[in-house]
Amino acid sequence: MQILHANWLLTCDENFTIIKNGAIVFDEKIILVDSIENVKKKYPIENIKYMGENSVLMPGLVNTHVHLEFCANKTTLSYGNFVQWLFSVIQNREELIEKATEELIDAELKKMLQNGTTSIGAISSYGFDMNSCIKSPLNVVYFTEALGSKAEMIDTLFLDFKEKLKISEANKNSRFIPAIAIHSPYSTHPFLIREILNIAREKEMVVSTHFQESVAENDWLNYSSGEFEYFFKDMLDQHISLTKPIAFLHQFKNIKNLSFTHCVQANKKELAQIKELGASIIHCPNSNRLLNNSILNLSYIEDIPLAMGTDGLSSNHTLNMFEEIRNAFFMHTNFKPNILARKLLQAATNGGANTLGLNTGALIKNKDADIICFNLPDTLNNQEDLPTAIILHTSKVNHTYIKGKNELL
Ligand SMILES: [Zn+2]
Question: What is the pTM of this model?
């Protein structure tokens, strides 16, 4: 059992409770969260570790959406236009995948721990990131991804998907949880989606998909036109979209833990359908900016659970969640800073954990003891400013506990 005491304890519970001079008692799970006075009454003082001046304890961050297999990209891919970026991914895919060695992926996962991330949703297209995810101390929800729109390929793609999923299931443990991803409505055949989602329902797996990421996607799905017209004609000799947004969303009924990534082009009807499905929206603002997609309107989705993700290094320069949150903080100018700061920290912890179906993301009794600790650069005068101060001044943490174990020691 361990006891940590900090100047500020951010629980990220439903009420966003902040405890000034707080302490947390935990082993693998959290036992007690209270003021230092109350904790001292119950436990011997010599067991309590003070985390230093201006210290903050909060739940570890949950990066719900990352593509580790693309982490070799630095300057290879073209940014600034979604369809051109996609062409550049296809052109350079082989080279990037080859460069993303186990060593490189291990190093990125280690950086994530140092940056305060304790759980990730890893979207895997090929399974090449699996060993790194199994070895890592991070909680990994490992999404085997289905992709392919050619009707004559469905049987082969389905067999291949089942094989990859089977391997991930064979490696399942308390920190490595197999899950299912559908790439997107424009890239995955409806029949393949139907079969794969039946597996997800049967095995009660977490499901995620990209949805309404770009204007090109919206134009293609609704009108079979726009920038994607040439892409599909050139690449796949396909002239008509295989699905419409509403029909695609309809396929996801009765999935318990479901999320849609991006949704920047989703209209009110589609958002209402996402709400009805009980799904979360995953916000990846850096990726949206780099591919010149629009900014997610957080005012439109106030009644839909929100989570945060960095997306892969194929459309980001870092997998650091604090940097992602900071950019989002400066992007969504229609919210007051302190209100937005609370919302983003909540989405990056509790919101992410709920999205991935994990028992973490809040400093509450019986949750997994996934805790991070860092120090603000100076004394904070006003408690209301704490979420904003954290977002402005934090990029790295001093301690990352996962299931009660300090993984930075
Ligand atoms: Zn993605």
Answer: 0.98
